[in-house]
Amino acid sequence: MPVLKAEASHYHSDLNNLLFCCQCVDVVFYHPEVTGVVEAHKIVLCAVSHVFMLLFNVKSPTDIQDSSIVRTTQDLFAVNRDAVFPGASQESASNPPLRVIVKDALFCSCLSDILRFIYS
């Protein structure tokens, strides 16, 4: 009878590599007064929070029963639809990442740590 060998999961390291290598990034968070941007993936963010589902139009405000989630989304973020975006990589000019303004500079400065937590 053959012996089955269990392999260790690479899920955690693969997800962290996805965040740090910025592969397939489709959303960029920034604050106009904070240098740098924070890149992420909509699918990962939507999997963990209704706030991101609202932000990325996966769900509408009428789909969400909790009005505090709608307020939180509106208070923290705004989607920037301007064509010019300083500091963004131009790798995929045909399909640029969604640009999201983080309304609170302090929250924006903590966002990379929050994303590390989400991706871990």
UniProtKB/TrEMBL annotation:
Domain of life where this protein originates: Eukaryota
Every BTB domain range: 25-120
A Pfam match: BTB
Name the UniProt record assigns to this protein: BTB domain-containing protein
Organism phylogeny: Eukaryota, Metazoa, Chordata, Craniata, Vertebrata
